[in-house]
Amino acid sequence: MKGKSFIVVALLFSTFFFFLESYAFAYTVQTGTVITNTSLNVRENPSNDAPVIGQLQSGAKIEYVDVGYDWVRITYNGKAGYLNSLFIKENRPTSQATSHQATSHQATAVSGVNVGKVTAKNGLIVRTQASTDSAMLGKIDYGSKVEYRISTGGWGQITYNGQRAFIDTSYLSGSTSNENISGATSNENKSVDQQAAVTGTISRVVIDPGHGGRDPGARGNGLIEKNITLLFAKQIKKSLQENGIEVYLTRSSDEYVYLQERANIADSFQADLFLSIHANGHENSLIRGMEIHSFALNNIALKLENQFRDLPNAVYRGHYESNFYVLRNTSTPSLLIELGYVSNQADAALLQSQQFQIQVGEAVRRALQS
Predict the structure, then answer these.
(1) Whose CA is closest to 288, among 119, 118, 107, 147?
(2) Is 177 exposed, middle or buried (0-12, 13-18, 19+ CB in 10 A)?
(3) pLDDT (tens digit, 9 = 90+) per residue, 228-248?
(4) Residue 95, pLDDT above cutoff 60
(5) Where does the chain have alpha helices with state H?
(6) How many Å separate Cα 201 from the centre of its chain?
(7) pTM passes above 0.85
(8) Residue 338, Cβ density class (10 Å: 0-12 exposed, 13-18 middle, ≥19 buried)
(9) Which residue in 71, 169, 172, 179 sits closest to 127, CA to CA?
(10) Cα dihedral: 198, 199, 204, 210 (round 10)
(11) DSSP structural state of residue 51
C-alpha cells in the first residue's frame, strides 16, 4: 500500500509541475502602460459585459498576460482582473523596439464605436485627414448624432459619403462608447513591407475565426461570436478552395488559440493574406453594419470594401486602420472583417442566414481574384 501511495503522490507532483511548465509556456508575463485620457475599466472576466471591479488611471504601470482576443489579465487587489488590450502599450526593450525603425508607417489608432452630438453652431467640418490642414469634405449639421472611432490627437474617424474621414471630437458632446473611454491607444511602428500593397496572384490564405473555446466574444440576440466566426470562416474557405486558393484555418472547431499563435500561423504558412473574421456587439442595439480593419492601408481592403458595399440587405460602415494584436504582430499582409453586430436584430438575422454566409464568401473570393 505504501508503495502504491508513493507512486500516486509522485504522479500527482509530476502532473502539477507539468501544468506549471505548460502554464509558464502559454502565458508570458509582460509589462505595459495604461494609455487613456481618463481611466480604464478592470473587469471580472474578459468581456465588455463583465462586471467592473475597479479602474486604472492613464499612465499606470502593469504586469499582464494575454488571455483572450484583445484582453489581458492582471492581478487587481489580490484577484484576477481583465483589461482591454487596445488601451495597453507594451513596454519593450530598446533592442526590440528599434527593429522596425528603418522604414515605418504610423497607423491611425482607433478604439470602439462612440456616439456624440455635434455642438458646433455652424456645423462640424469633415476632413480627409486628422489635421486642420487637410481638405474639407463637407459639414455635419449642428445637433446631429455622429458615430465615430477615436483616432489620434483629439480626432475621430468616421465614414462620410462612403469614404473614410475625420472630425474634431472637441465639437461633440454626450459621447459614449462600449468601454466609456475617450482616450486613444498608440500604435507601434510597423515596417512598410509588412503591410505593403498585396500584388500578384493570391494563392495561399490563412483565415482566422476570432475567439473560440473559453473566449466566446460578443453575445446578442441568441448569437455567440465564436460560433458565427467559425461558420463564416468555413464558408469563405470553401469559396476560395473551389477557385484554386490554398486555405488554412487557425482553428476548425470550438477551441482556444492564443493571439500570437494565430499570427505565427500566418507567417509559417507563408500566406499571401491573413484574414481574421469577427462579429461586433454594442450596448446601442441600433448600431449595425460590416467593417474592414487593417493596421495599415493595402489594396485588398479597397477591393473588399467595394464588394461589401454591394451585398444585399447588409450595411457597410467603412474601413478603419486599427491597432488589433493579430494585425500588428504578423509580417503577412492582413485584414480583419467585422461581419455585423450581434446586438442588432437586422444584423443578427443576416449572420444566421446561410445565404448571407455564401454571399460573404463569394465577396471575399471576388476581391482576392480581381
Answers:
(1) 147
(2) buried
(3) 999 999 999 999 999 999 999
(4) no
(5) 2-26, 94-97, 225-241, 259-268, 299-309, 325-328, 345-351, 354-369
(6) 26
(7) no
(8) buried
(9) 169
(10) 10
(11) P
- Rounded to whole angstroms, the Cα distance separating 202 from 78 reads 49
Length of the chain: 370
In 3D, which of 359, 361, 358, 356 has the Cα closest to residue 346? 356
What does the DSSP 8-state code read for residue 212? Answer: B
Q: What does the block give as the cell for 276?
A: 481574421
Q: Are 110 and 151 in contact (CB under 8 A)?
A: yes
Instruction: Categorize the per-residue pLDDT at 68 as very low, low, confident or very high, splitting at 50, 70 and 90.
Output: low
Helices then strands, counting H and E runs in the chain, come out as: 8, 24
Report how far apart the first and last C-alpha atoms of the chain are (Å, whole number): 72
Selected catalytic residue, list 188, 225, 291, 338: 338
Distance CA 156, CA 124 (A): 12
pLDDT in tens, 262-313: 988 888 888 999 999 999 988 889 989 999 998 877 788 989 999 999 999 9
Our answer to whether residue 338 is catalytic in this structure is yes
Q: What burial class does residue 93 get, using C-beta atoms within 10 Å of its C-beta: 0-12 exposed, 13-18 middle, 19+ buried?
A: exposed
Closest CA to 241 of 357, 362, 332, 353: 362
> Beta partners for 62?
32
